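thread: overnight batch results

M.L. [08:02]
morning all. the overnight job finished for the chain we discussed friday. pasting input first so we're all looking at the same thing
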Amino acid sequence: MASLRFHVILFLIYTSFLCLISCHCPPENHVTLFIFGDSIFDSGNNNYINTTAQANYQPYGRTYIKYPSGRFSDGLLIPDFIAEYVKSPYILPYLQPGIHDFTYGVNFASSGAGALFETHRELLNPIDLRAQLTFFEDVEKQLKQKLGDAETKSLLSRAVYLISIGRNDYLVPFYPNSTVFQTYSKEEYVGMVIGNLTVTIKELYEKGGRKFGFINVEPLGCIPYVKILDQGSNGSCFEEATALAELHNRELSLALQELESQLKGFKYTNFNFYSSLSERINNPSQYGFKEVNIACCGSGQYRGILSCGGRGGVTDYQVCENPNEYLFFDAYHLSGKANQQLAELMWSSTDHNVSGPNYNLKELINL
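M.L. [08:03]
and the structure it wrote out:
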C-alpha cells in the first residue's frame, strides 16, 4: 500500500511538472480545454474531497499508467484522448495541489455530480455543476492576474468547453424510496436539469466562451448498475430509465438549437453518446467486445454492484483478466477501450447524427 501511494504521488508530481514546463511557452495555436461534468470526465477531482465516489485505488487504472489516478476506468477517459488529439498535455483536475498554470485548461468534473445541487448531495457530496462554475470563475481571476484582461478574454473565447452532465440526475428517481416522481412529472424533472445546464452555458458564454462540446446521456437502462435497480428485470435493459435519458436528449438538442439562435457566435457539437453506446451494445463483435452485459469489475448480478476494488461497502468483488474485451469496466463506467472509440467518434465522425449537428469536435476547434 505504501509503495502504491508513493507511485501515485510520483505520477501526479510528474504530470504537474510536465504541464508546468510545457505551459510556459505553449504553441501559438494551442488548444485550451475547460472540462465540466461527472465521472465520464472526472480525471481525479474526487481524490481531494470527502466522498466515497473515488477511483484512486486498484484495479482502476490497471491498463493506463498501471496505477490508479482517480479515473473511473481501467484506462483513459474521453477528455484524455481529446487532449491527445489536440497535442495537449492531459488536462489536470482543478483540485490537484500545485496547479498554477491554466494555459491548456483545467478539469472541474466530479464523479457523482449532477446539474441539480441535490443530486447525490447526501450520498456522495460531489462538486455539482454550479460549484464547478464557481471554480471556473476562480480560474478566470487567476488568468486575469497573470495575463491581463485582454489576453484572458482572448484565451477564453478561443477555448473549448466540454460538458458531460445529467446521467446522475436521472439515477436518483430510481433509487429505493425516491419520491422525485411523486413531486415532479418526468417532463418537469428533465426541464429542471436542462434549465440548470442552460444557465451554466449562458454564464460561460458571458465569460467569453464560444465553442462548446456536449455529450448526451447514454441508454441508462442498459448499464449494469442501473439494470439491477429494476427489481423485475429478466436481464433486459431497464426501459423506464432509458426512456428518461431519451427525453433528456431530445430536450438537450432543442435547448442547444435555441441557444445557437440567441447567442451570437455560440458554436457547439453534441456527441450522440446514446446511439454510439447502443450500437456497441447491440453489435459488440463489430467493435471488438466480447461482453457488454456484465462489467469487468464488481459483484452481484451483471457485476452491477459498485464494489470494484472492495471500497464500496462490499469487500468481495470479481475482476476480469482482459478489460479490453468488456464494454463496461465497472458497474457504471466504461472500459478504456470503449472510451477511446467514443472519443474518436466525438473528435472526427463525419456522420453529423453522431457528432453534430453541424460540426464534429475537430471541425469545431478549427473554426
